[in-house]
Fold:
Amino acid sequence: MEEKLKWLFRKLEAEEQLAEKLFQQETPEEVQVLLKENSLEMTIEEIIAARDILNRTVAPSEAGELSEEDLDNVAGGYRGHKSPKTPGYYIIW
Structure:
């Protein structure tokens, strides 16, 4: 699954339109269809795990600090995807 997530994050970084479409989806099943159209097959469980990682990355903690788990997830220089930077933004799928 790690390789799929890396591919997805690189793709979202490179293709802003795909990122926008992805964040407009309302269910994991809709996300699965969109990803499949873009040559990436992911299970519903993998999509939910990716959503959780993205939400931790996008939604800052109450204190504005990263947890140890968040730091582990971003180690290696990942810059994130181009998502809305508004406070309280949360991916719903």
